[in-house]
Amino acid sequence: MSTVVPLWRERGPHPRPGHLALLGTGTVGSAFIARYSRLVAQGAALPEIAWLCNSRTQIAGGVDLQGALAQARAAARRHAGFPPWAEGESSRPGDIIVDATASETVADWHPEWLARGVHVVTANKLGTGGDLGRALAIDDARASGGRYGDSATVGAGLPLLRSLRSLIAGGDRIHAIEGVLSGSLAWLFAHHDGSRPFSALVRQARASGYTEPDPRVDLSGEDVRRKLLILARAAGIALPAHEVVVESLVPEALARAAGDAVDACLHLLDADLEARRVAAAAAGARLCVVGRFDAQGASVGLRALPAAHPLCAGSGTDNRVAIHSDRYSAQPLVIQGPGAGAEVTAAALLDDVLAISAATA
C-alpha cells in the first residue's frame, strides 16, 4: 500500500514568512491552536505564532501554545481595556494576522494591515461582508499590499470564493448565486421533521457549537446576509448591505428578550415554524433558508423548495451553493460540503496560512 504524503510535504519545507498573530481565543481560536500544533508536529512549515490576542490582552506565543491560550482566555474574563493589537505596532510586513473574531473593530483594521504588507487570514465576515466602503478598501489594499485569505468566511473553507474568482478571471459572467449558506440553519431545518419542537433543536445546535452562543444571530438571517454580500462582491457586484431584503425567523418578543432570557423564550419559534413545515410537506417541499442575488435584487428568507431542487441535496450542516453564469446556463454549478463548526473553520484558516506561506517563500 502506498503512503499518502500531504501536499505541503511533497513541496518540501519553505522558509517561514515573518510571524503569525492569532486574534480571537474563543472556540475557533482554540481549534486553530490545536490544529496548528498537530501540523507543526507533522513537519508543516508554518510561521511561528508570536502573539495570541483578544479584546483584553496580548500574550506571547512560543512553545507552550496551550498555556498561552489558557492565559489569554483567563485574562479576557478578568480585565478590560484597549486591545493592544489595535494599535498595530507589533505587526510588520510579511507577518500574518489571523482574525478569528467577529469584531467590527478588527475588521476595520484589515485594509490598513494589507496596505502595510501584512497578510490577513480571516473568518471574520465583517471585513468583506459588512460595510461596502470597507470591503472596497480591502479589495484595493489586497491589489498592492498583503495577501487576503478569506476562504473561512463563506462555507468554512469550501472552494466557493476560489471557484467564483476563477470563473470571473476566465471571462465568465455571473447571473445569479443562490445558496443554503448557514450550516447551523441547514442543520436545524434538516432535523425539523415534527418529532421535536424547533426550540429543542435550537438548543441542541447551540450545545453542539453549530450556532452562535445567542442563536438569534443565526435565526435573524444576518449571518446569511453577510455571506451573500461576500459572494456578490467577489463576483464583482458592489452590493450594499441595505439592499439585501432579510426575513428574520425571530419573533418580535424573542428579539426584544434580554440575553439571559433567550433560552426561556425560544418556544416562541415553535408554532409558526411548525405550521410552515406542515404546509411545505403537504406540497412535497422542504424548508430551507436561502440567500440569493440576481439582476432583480438580493434576499434572504425561508423558502419551501421542491425535493428535486439543487439546494435540497445534502444533509447535516452542509452548505449548498448554486452558481448561474454564462458557462453554467443550462444547469448551475453546485458546490456542497460541511459549512459549520470550529474544526472546519480552523482548517480553512490554516489552509490559507499555508497557501500564503508557500506563495511568499
TrEMBL record:
First-tier enzyme category under EC: oxidoreductase
EC number: 1.1.1.3
Pfam families noted in UniProt: Homoserine_dh (PF00742), NAD_binding_3 (PF03447)
Pathway note: Amino-acid biosynthesis; L-methionine biosynthesis via de novo pathway; L-homoserine from L-aspartate: step 3/3; Amino-acid biosynthesis; L-threonine biosynthesis; L-threonine from L-aspartate: step 3/5
GO BP field: homoserine biosynthetic process; lysine biosynthetic process via diaminopimelate; methionine biosynthetic process; threonine biosynthetic process
Residues involved in L-homoserine binding: 212
Sequence positions that bind NADPH: 101, 125
Required cofactor(s): a metal cation
Residues of the Homoserine dehydrogenase catalytic domain: 159-354
Catalytic activity: L-homoserine + NADP(+) = L-aspartate 4-semialdehyde + NADPH + H(+); L-homoserine + NAD(+) = L-aspartate 4-semialdehyde + NADH + H(+)
Alphabetically ordered keywords of this record: Amino-acid biosynthesis, Methionine biosynthesis, NADP, Oxidoreductase, Threonine biosynthesis
Active site: 227
GO molecular function per UniProt: homoserine dehydrogenase activity; NADP binding
Domain Aspartate/homoserine dehydrogenase NAD-binding: 24-141
Binding-site positions, NADP(+): 24-29
UniProt record similarity statement: Belongs to the homoserine dehydrogenase family.
Name of the protein: Homoserine dehydrogenase
